[in-house]
Amino acid sequence: MNQQTAQVIQAAFRHATYPDISGEKSMAFLGKVAYGLTNIQINHLSIENSEVDFKEDDAIDIAIQNVTASFKGTLSYGYTGAWFVKLTHSIDFEIESSIDLQINAKLTCAKGRVAADTSDCYLMFYKLTLHLQGDKQPGWLKQLFTDFISFTLKLVLKRQVCNEINSLAQLLADFIQDRAANFLQDGPIGVDISLASFPVIKANYMESHHKGLLLYKNYSVVFNDSMFAPSLLSESRMLYFWFSDQVLNSLALAAFLDERLVLTITGEELREMFEMEDTEAYQGIVQEIFQGTSYNDSLAKVWSLTPPQITLQPEGTIVKSSVAVELSIFSQGAEPTVVLYFEKEVTVTIQSVYVEKKLVLHLADSVIEPKVFKCALERAEDDTSLRHFLQKIISVAGIPEVISRIEPALTSLMNSKGLDLFEIKNPEIITKEGYLIIQLDFGFPHHLLVDFLKKTL
């Protein structure tokens, strides 16, 4: 965090606009001396150290130490002598400064979002030296401008730098929240991440509670009161996400309504499933099902009949859904023939891990209950061996096939949102009764911050 903070502060110094400074002063023997500093801009900037500290229920204390900054520009001055002789001069100048910067950033709520307020900002100057071009100007001139320009210059620098930091802080807060909202959105399905309560600063972490409501067309979902409490989290990791199973169920509902829970299995994939080692004893049934037709002339469709019900438990994520399966074969010049149709109540227990930038789903348990069965074969629909074969195909090949499709689909979706850009360290997905916790350490990608600063500034 210290490194990223230093980068933002450097950007604030460089991007701040420094207005022209002008003034006038009466000098003995010289009359009135008018001056102006124009084209002020950063020439060099370095930050030696930065520290971030949390003040509980108050602010995030940011201390930037030993900022070495040099500014350059043009000094114009003129005076009217005792004999009304007007003289005007312009010379280049450089100002060397050594500064400490103190910011007390407060978190507020604005329009349902976390807002950063860094208006409590101070610059402390330990050095402010004016160098005139070539340093060959009269000593009294340098002393004159150093004395009565430095005070004005300090005020200008403080105002402009602090204003720019405040502006950048809010832009960065919006940028992070926009990325979070985008991460939880795919097409018309999204999650409302507006604040449910004021953000909180603790002694060593920040905490924010978000609504997590489903955003999908005109559908609305009402959640029961949250069971979240800070004591449910440890304090050993950098970042924690807490989700109730209500959030996951609302997303499953949207996926169902958006007709995404549909899977087609091609003939080649069916061949691999039906000819696997565990089904050798049933090859006679397989030949009857396909009626001598090539696997390439077949297609299976699997879809969810009802929105999946998700329950989070210590043993994993339990998903229960009514599923329909339809197997069709194609004959040249004829309409597809449905040879099998059946419905099952399927309950699976899934354990999830995130490894090497991929989501991995492990099937821990499955329960299959038959519901509807229709068969176009000569065999009776209550044929025990056929039903047993289909039960085995579903448990041994069907469910793993569905999981193998979901894994890359979810990984691809997350990576499309930029998750793979982050250096995620030791991530854990922990399921408990009614909720899950994602905890991790991470490295904020340098190029992402650079990209933000380029686009913003």
Quick structural summary:
By secondary structure, the protein is of the alpha+beta class. 29% of the residues lie in helices and 44% in strands.
Chart the SSEs and their pairings.
Elements lengths: L1 H14 L5 E7 L3 E25 L3 E22 L5 E25 L2 E20 L6 H45 L6 E3 L7 E2 L4 E2 L5 E3 L23 E6 H13 L4 E5 H8 L8 H8 L7 E7 L4 E5 L2 E14 L7 E19 L2 E18 L8 H33 L6 E10 L2 E9 L2 H11 L1
Antiparallel strand pairs: 1-2, 2-3, 3-4, 4-5, 6-9, 7-8, 10-18, 11-12, 12-14, 13-14, 14-15, 15-16, 17-18
Helix pairs in contact: 1-2
List its salient traits.
about 450 residues; alpha+beta; six-stranded antiparallel sheet; five-stranded antiparallel sheet; 7 helices
Description:
With 457 residues, the protein is of the alpha+beta class. Helix content is 29%, strand content 44%. Helix 1 crosses helix 2. The radius of gyration is 34 Å and the shape is elongated.
* Shape category: elongated
**Percent of residues in β-strands:** 35-45%
Number of alpha- plus pi-helical segments:
7
Indicate the radius of gyration in whole angstroms.
34 Å
* Biggest beta sheet attributes: 6 strands, antiparallel
Category by helix and strand content: alpha+beta
Low-pLDDT ranges = none
Number of strands: 18
Measured as a percent range, the helix fraction is 25-40%
Give the N-terminus to C-terminus distance in angstroms.
21 Å
Quote the average pLDDT: 86
What series of H and E elements makes up the topology?
HEEEEEHEEEEEHEHHEEEEEHEEH
